Amino acid sequence: MSVFSPGFRGRSRPAGHQLPPGQYETDDFPVLSAGPTPRISLDTWTFTIVDETGGRHSWNWAEFNALPQTSPHVDIHCVTRWSKFDTDWVGVSLDTLLEPVETQAEFALAVSYGGYTTNVPLEDLTDGKAWIVHRFGGHDLAPEHGGPARLLIPHLYFWKSAKWVTELRLLDEDEPGFWENAGYHDYGDPWREQRYQGD
Question: Where are the stretches annotated Disordered (predicted)?
Answer without folding.
Answer: 1-26
